[in-house]
Design goal:
Layout lengths: L5 H9 L4 E5 L3 H9 L4 E4 L3 H4 L11 H12 L6 E5 L9 H13 L6 E4 L3 H9 L4 E6 L5 H4 L9 H16 L4 E5 L3 H10 L4 E4 L7 E4 L1 H4 L17 H18 L7 H15 L1
Parallel strand pairs: 1-2, 1-8, 2-3, 3-4, 4-5, 5-6, 6-7, 7-8
Helix pairs in contact: 5-6, 8-9
The protein binds 3-methyl-2-oxobutanoic acid (KIV).
């Protein structure tokens, strides 16, 4: 099976086709989303919230990211696998950023990395090492303390203009794609029109070159807070609770497992075969 690459995503933008991205963090889920034909899988540091149960992404370490990227990479014969650089692994400068990115590729098996904010020297160092690197602007969750919470970015004119300029700088620094999170639709459209590289939106409206969603949110997997912009394509959380309730009920009332005489016979035959 051929892998989707940076080049394929660029061709999609050039042809006016949309790119489909979801997050995933483990082997089982990744097999399913890869089979569904998504273009790229983001091993997002959102795993700090949806997998680890923290209230932000700030506690995720590089070792956590490497572990989850390994799990995802084994299950994705087709989609491009991109891993997030977590908080504290690139802010100190380009050298650390590059060595963190190299670990995600070398140990995790990532085919590219994503870096939050307009960290241009870091981005440049990674791109110059021929590691595909995605930028990420707007509501970058690693900056929540600076932003004062999970807030829409680029709402006033000055901020919107700055976002468009930052986006161009991120492209010039060598990003192969740009994620735009929680910004007004018209700002996302202006950025998408100004850039050659694809833009992928999350809470940034329909004018981006593609979309990304956190897989747990779009599948209705948990009952935790879900951002307003998310569309839930399934209610798997409810199905799981119902299924586990049925299992518990059947274990308690003795209807599972079903009594099967032939199983007892074949087990007896196996034992006697082993004895001889
Ligand atoms: O960590 C993540 O999952 C992300 C996406 C929401 C873009 O950065």
């Amino acid at each position: 099976m051929t892998k989707v690459t940076r080049v394929d995503l660029q061709k999609k933008k050039d042809a006016g086709e949309r790119c489909v991205v979801v997050t995933a963090y483990d082997y089982g889920m990744t097999r399913l989303v890869d089979e569904a034909g998504v273009d790229a899988i983001l091993v997002g540091d959102s795993l700090g919230m949806v997998v680890q149960g923290h209230d932000s992404t700030l506690k995720v370490t590089l070792d956590h990211m490497i572990y989850h990227t390994q799990c995802v990479q084994r299950a994705a014969p087709r989609a491009q696998v991109i891993a997030d650089l977590p908080f504290g692994t690139f802010q100190q400068g380009p050298e650390l950023a590059l060595s963190s990115a190299v670990r995600l590729v070398q140990e995790g098996g990532a085919e590219g990395v994503k870096i939050e904010g307009h960290r241009l020297p870091a981005l440049e160092a990674i791109a110059q090492a021929d590691i595909p690197v995605w930028g990420h602007l707007g509501l970058t969750p690693q900056s929540i303390h600076a932003f004062g919470g999970f807030r829409v970015q680029g709402k006033n004119e000055g901020d919107a203009v700055r976002l468009v300029e930052d986006a161009k700088r991120v492209e010039d620094a060598g990003a192969s794609l740009l994620v735009l999170e929680c910004i007004p639709w018209d700002v996302a459209r202006a950025i998408t029109e100004a850039l050659h590289i694809p833009t992928i939106g999350i809470g940034a409206g329909p004018h981006c070159d593609g979309q990304v969603l956190v897989i747990y949110d779009m599948l209705g997997f948990g009952h935790d807070f879900v951002p307003k912009f998310v569309r839930r394509y399934a209610e798997t959380g409810d199905s799981i609770v119902d299924a586990v309730k049925s299992y518990a009920q059947e274990v308690r009332d003795g209807s599972f497992p079903t009594y099967d005489e032939s199983y007892g016979e074949s087990a007896a035959k196996m034992e006697s075969a082993e004895e001889h």
